[in-house]
């Protein structure tokens, strides 16, 4: 169920264009607002890229661009494991936004389509891209563990950023309100969600590989 290679590259290109456009507009909006408040453009730039949403979408945009240009050729950015990890990151972005963040600070003006692009459109499109076009049967049960490195490092970064600036980026990590035990507990739950979704993707990968190539037998992991 890998789909047509040309169609996959075109779909990846579409995702890359949407992601880069949404990222660029978000940076422009936040940096402009920072300057209007008397802060520096650099402060606004650091602030916007301190959000997991922007980091995950940027990684996704880089990977989608590589897949559009190189297809499924063997490189780090186009490996099925890399694309699966990005799928986990961006799906979690969409789920957390929908469940916990939507409506807390309703966007206005240009920020409305940008928010929709970053939190809804890009996650949905990339999940479909992984499901339809990424080769299956290449993932192993051990893969979701290293995929946790990026979100785990982000937890550390966000807490340090909040302590240094006084700006905690998400309500579930707001240490002054929640305290460190609860904020860290929330982080552990979210990391567990990343891991669980990673395991689910491996299970789907194995199931789809078995459906396409039933003669492969019971071994679905990488050699």
What does this structure look like?
This protein is mostly helical and 223 residues long. The protein has one domain (5-216). 73% of the residues lie in helices and 0% in strands. α1 crosses α2 (41-48), α1 (5-36) packs antiparallel against α3 (52-70) and α4 packs across α9. The protein starts with a helix and ends in an 11-residue tail after the last helix.
Low-confidence stretches: 214-223
User: In total, how many beta strands?
Assistant: 0
By DSSP (H or I, 4+ residues per run), the number of helices equals 9
Helix content: over 70%
Q: Calculate Rg over CA atoms.
A: 19 Å
- Apparent shape: globular
**Taking all residues together, what is the mean pLDDT?**
91
- By helix and strand content, what is the structural category? mainly alpha
**Count of all domains:** 1
End-to-end Cα distance, whole Å, is: 21 Å
Largest sheet: none
What is the percentage of strand-forming residues?
Answer: under 5%
Order of helices and strands: HHHHHHHHH
Task: Write a short abstract of this structure.
With 223 residues, this protein is mainly α. It has one domain. It is built from nine helices and no strands.
Characteristic terms for this protein:
mainly alpha; 9 helices; globular; disordered C terminus
Topology:
Elements (H helix, E strand, L loop, with lengths): L4 H32 L4 H8 L3 H19 L9 H22 L9 H23 L10 H4 L1 H17 L9 H4 L1 H33 L11
Helix pairs in contact: 1-2, 1-3, 1-5, 3-4, 3-5, 4-5, 4-9
